[in-house]
From TrEMBL:
This is WD repeat domain 27. SUPFAM superfamilies: WD40 repeat-like. Signal peptide: none annotated. Transmembrane segments: none annotated. The lineage of its organism: Eukaryota, Metazoa, Chordata, Craniata, Vertebrata. The gene is WDR27. It comes from Homo sapiens (Human). It comes from the Eukaryota.
Amino acid sequence: MENPQDIFSSNGGCLSDIVIEKYLVESKESVSHVQLACSMQDCAFPLDGTELCIWNTKDPSHQLLILRGHHQPITAMAFGNKVNPLLICSASLDYVIMWNLDECREKVLQALDLQFDGWTPLSSCGTG
């Protein structure tokens, strides 16, 4: 059986038994328990209760994707079992929303282009 230190030392984020913080996201709301859903390349968690934050774990330098559409706190989320299209479902008391992450990322890129042209969109992706 492998020594746990050997396993951790081969990973870029961990050395022996020390975990290195790669990214920090602050929330406006105090939370004692935050749900986390992960796929092969992304992790998702509620941000400030009603927003869904998607973090690309393969390339942490990518901007966080913030999905807005819920009006009540997000209580559950799960990734789909396919990579193409990459889907995530989020649920709250008001809505259950199925998000296509490829489409959402494309809308954000288009919105950034529009912002440079002097127009600012109201939402990054989807509505409830």
